[in-house]
Amino acid sequence: MAMTAANYFTTGSRCTSQGSSLCYQEFQVSGFLRLQPKPQRTQLSRQQFGIRASVVSEVEEKKYASEDAYSSLSQVCAVLGTQWGDEGKGKLVDILAERYDVVARCQGGSNAGHTIYNNEGKKFALHLIPSGILNENAICIIGNGVVVHLPTFFEEVNRLETSGVDCRGRLFVSDRAHLLFDLHQTVDGLREAELKGSMIGTTKRGIGPCYASKAIRNGLRVGDLRHMDAFREKLVNLFRDAASRFKSFQYEEKQVEAEVERYRVFANRLGPYITDTVQYVNEAYRQKKKLLVEGGQATMLDMDFGTYPFVTSSNPSAGGICTGLGIAPRHIGDIIGVVKAYSTRVGAGPYPTEIHGDIADRIRDAGYEYGTTTGRPRRCGWLDMVALNYSCQINGFSYLNMTKLDVLSCLPNIRIGVSYKSKNGKTLSSFPADLQTLEEVQVEYEDLPGWEVDISKIRRYRDLPSAAKNYIDRVESLVGIPIRFIGVGPGRDAMIVKD
């Protein structure tokens, strides 16, 4: 695939450490990276031009190392979250998207989200559409495992097209994906209110109720929009089901009719986007096209493996790739796990390494830890190696991408949670499923010195402060998986490739 000039920057909207010219909340794009064909390098140039050539060669070597690290990834590659979400997956996806022919989402809905910037510094907030949409040569797929709220979908399409990003012929939605209606969002709020003091802390985007409709087999799929004659009856069943479950959910016949007419309009507009994506993805694989899978949420929010019931309603772990896209497990090559240099969590649920007070505030402010989708402040904590090892065990990651390392530059000392002990003092051998046990664990920490200097402009691993490298090396040794990519700032170029 030819490289394009769809060069853009990514941010989790957060502020860097002191001394940096970029800010995670807002930063100026003073230029943009242009990808060029790799020039031929010869030993003659170094000999002929001496010191100057040596300096140029060092710059080129860094560039080639990055290109090789990205371009050498497998035909089918996935980028997944390892923690409780918000790890900054979008940045690596955006970098890789230029090297892949197809970028696909396999699960979740509009509860996922990140912000990307094009080469002119214009911001795009995406919640449903894969981030590869800014790469004009990439095909973007919303797979069968995603739940699709069409008003949100068309809002994103409209914003993109108004900004000059053409989605026609490049964006496809699975005919097997389930439709998320406004009534699902209403039910989501009613369910949270019903739980009162035991609220899950959902985004109230209707994700859980939509997956519930799918599970009890009364949901509507995108393909049902091709048969509007039967659509009304199926939609009535959804309204009736909600009304029977919640006394405060009341509706009139005219509401149903209005929704049917609304979706009749959607059906006409969505027609060109509807595709058998299972066939499309597998045919692309057969033709040796490169496929990048963009995960939403993260493993510790997985319906089966996360801190249930304080989880999302899908499988953001590796298994969700197969069930959400219809691709065979043996076709999946590299799986990259994205891990924040510390940890965060939104909403309720156990969080063993959570910290409070001044240190938590400093991390939250430096990292601008507020949700892209909800704007909610995130809970902050130290890196939890028990949870990370558990996540790595489940997913079988090839490499890790550590993000937001620069945020820790504001701290004189940094802690790593290395093990759990039960209340009777016994070291736990694995991440517990029982929430009471998890709430009661005592975390054993290792303390490492901080580096307290701005690292946001560093682009080579060897140029990092010794304390920063020691931190990375220690995490790497505890998890047993190479940390190949290291994020040191919000800019798209603020990524170090570690050989």
Structure, described:
The protein is α/β, with parallel strands linked by helices and 499 residues long. It folds into 2 domains: 73-175 and 276-497, Adenylosuccinate Synthetase, subunit A, domain 3 (Adenylosuccinate Synthetase, Chain A, domain 3), CATH 3.90.170; 178-272, Adenylosuccinate Synthetase, subunit A, domain 2. Helices cover 34% and strands 17% of the residues. The two termini are 25 Å apart. 46% of the residues are buried.
Q: Determine the mean pLDDT.
A: 85
Please give the largest β-sheet.
Answer: 10 strands, mixed
Number of strands: 20
Give helix % range: 25-40%
Alpha-carbon Rg, integer: 23 Å
**CATH class assignment of the largest domain:** Alpha Beta
| CATH homolog superfamily of the largest domain | Adenylosuccinate Synthetase, subunit A, domain 3
Portion in strands: 15-25%
Count the helices. How many?
13
Principal-axes geometry comes out as: globular
CATH topology value of the largest domain: Adenylosuccinate Synthetase, Chain A, domain 3
What is the count of structural domains? 2
CATH architecture of the largest domain: Alpha-Beta Complex
Instruction: Measure the end-to-end span.
Output: 25 Å
Please give the order of strands in the largest beta sheet: 10-8-6-3-11-2-12-16-19-20
Question: Class by helix and strand content?
Answer: alpha/beta
Question: Low-confidence parts, pLDDT < 50 over ≥5 residues?
Answer: 1-22, 26-56
